[in-house]
Design goal:
Elements lengths: L6 E8 L2 H11 L5 E5 L4 E3 L3 E7 L2 H13 L3 E9 L2 E7 L5 E6 L14 E8 L2 H10 L4 E5 L3 E4 L4 E7 H7 L6 E3 L3 E5 L4 E2 L5 E4 L6
Parallel strand pairs: 1-2, 4-7, 8-11, 13-15
Antiparallel strand pairs: 1-13, 3-12, 4-8, 5-6, 6-7, 9-10, 10-11, 14-15
Protein name: Glyoxalase
């Protein structure tokens, strides 16, 4: 049986790499998010979010506070909802990061711990993108019609949903243009998906 196709890291592109690096260091993401300089034009919603899943609300609050102190901008204050507790921040260069806990109550010590990292892509056609990625070896873990797809790509999980639906989760307008300023590094090869998200083979990114 073939090994699972993995996302090893993502590379954020930014006008000011130093400021962007400080933001991701504050989140505690280590080598899972890399940064490099870029002046590619971009405007509005970039069509994706990075979601950090944590064990309890106090951890979400701590991570969001650290992100803002490191130069991030609060987009959505942390609060309770039907699905749990969470909020959203944007990096100095504009990447949206959500921090969420399925639990609504704190239990025990609020250790700064990330349980899962999810790269959520907002796409024009979930079914078409699902087929595109399945043909490149990504294994579907969950699928809800043409609304939501999740692939088993640890250490960073990949999900697909409609662009407008994803923007709504962070109270953002779905409008945007130009580069998403993100490159996905893994073992699926080098290609660009139907919505313009660029992938690179992980071994090619060691510069």
């Amino acid at each position: 049986m073939a090994d699972m196709t993995k996302i090893e890291y993502i590379t954020a592109e930014a006008d000011d790499p130093g400021a962007e690096e400080r933001f991701y260091q504050a989140l505690g993401l280590g080598d899972l998010v890399r940064v490099r300089a870029s002046d590619a034009p971009t405007a509005g919603f970039r069509g994706f979010t990075l979601s950090l899943v944590v064990p309890q609300p106090a951890v979400a609050d701590g991570i969001i506070e650290a992100a803002v102190e490191a130069g991030g901008t609060l987009m959505k204050s942390a609060s309770k909802s039907l699905w749990g507790y969470g909020g959203a921040v944007s990096s100095p260069d504009g990447m949206i990061v959500t921090v969420a806990s399925a639990g609504k109550k704190n239990t025990g010590d609020p250790e700064h711990r990330i349980e899962n990292i999810v790269l959520q892509l907002g796409v024009a056609d979930v079914g078409e993108s699902k087929r595109f990625y399945a043909e490149r070896g990504l294994k579907v873990a969950k699928s809800f019609g043409r609304r939501y797809v999740e692939f088993g790509t640890g250490p960073i999980t990949l999900t697909l949903l409609k662009r407008a639906a994803l923007a709504k989760t962070v109270d953002a307008s779905p409008d945007g243009s130009g580069s998403p300023r993100i490159v996905i590094g893994g073992d699926a090869g080098s290609f660009t998906d139907p919505d313009g998200f660029e992938w690179e083979a992980a071994q090619e990114a060691a510069s």
